[in-house]
Amino acid sequence: MWRIESARLIAGLARMVRDVGLAEELAQDALVSALEQWPETGIPRNPGAWLMAAAKNRAIDQIRRQRNYERKLAEIGRDEEQRTAPDAGARVGDIDDDLLRLVFTACHPVLSVEAQVALTLKMLGGLTTEEIARAFLASESTVAQRIVRAKKTLAKANVPFEVPAEDERDARLASVLGVIYLIFNEGYSATAGDDWLRPELCADALRLARVLAGLMPKEPEVHGLVALLEIQASRSRARVGPGGEPVLLLEQNRARWDQLLIRRGLESLRKAGSGPYSVQARIAACHAVARTPEDTDWRRIAGLYEALALIAPSPIVALNHAVAIGFAFGPEVALELVDELVDEPALKGYHLLPSVRGDLLVKLGRPAEAKVEFEHAAGMTRNERERALLLSRAAACS
Prior knowledge:
The protein is an all-alpha fold. It has helices at 2-17, 20-41, 47-64, 69-76, 92-106, 113-123, 129-135, 140-156, 166-188, 199-215, 220-233, 259-269, 276-288, 298-311, 315-329, 331-339, 352-363, 367-380, 384-396, and strands spanning 192-193, 382-383. Helix content is 68%, strand content 1%.
């Protein structure tokens, strides 16, 4: 129940008290009241309204103790007679607006990316500090401090609890989408630890993306992100073998791909635009509609990566473009492109660069050189499953 209601509860309270940290405390106080009372009284028919009423009552009590009680009470728009009335009259539009404000507040640029991620998962995902720490392999105290500092930073900067004006919205929306994408990627390909995949984190990111699409239905790039995550998530069951080992894309059993997620992703893609997430979604769709690896339209994928490089250039996009070129036009051409990236500073610690190079060298019949590349990549990754896969590929080159 808390996972379902917490984001709406915090969002509604934050609009009233204009303080995200205080809103979370009030919401958690309401949760404690529910844990104390519901075992005796039973779960109410509208648990969300009960929690909101309890939290608002606490907000009124707290405001009464402050000097500006009258002004704050007027902002809440409540009077004493409403103290025990359930808050069932909030319109869907009001709730949606509050959630949208909370999304933009949690991803405010005054916060670091790490703080944005932690706060988004806490406020919107309903995750506990322990769950966030486990997902990102950080200590619980580190994550707790990060969240506390984020709230203090928002309060100190006097960040307004609002959706930014239209001239600021695009830049802020890019930050929101980036946070959700980062959360999904950490679940889809864990950077460290013993697990190749963290499905719960993927599910949280996908749920956040769907909520955002519902709140901003006219934003094409939001639909582009939803399409990308739906299609990528469709492969989750096929990406891990019986023993938890990684299964690479071209070796996956495509019968295990989730066709419902693919259909949903393709439907969202129809509403997408021409931004970076939309282009990546089209690349993912090329794989999704190919019944076999041989059916993959690599030339189209290479063209899409070329388009992506124009709107969102990065060394990683260039590396992925080289991979697509290799499948479309041969490993010789691709190796030339990859070799141009070897001295790229941004890829210095990126293990997939030597991994890709090793794969191309295998195809060119140069196993001794490929073995060195795979071993190099294995030494760079922090994920144990991925390291084992790379070492097995190196051994196969012997």
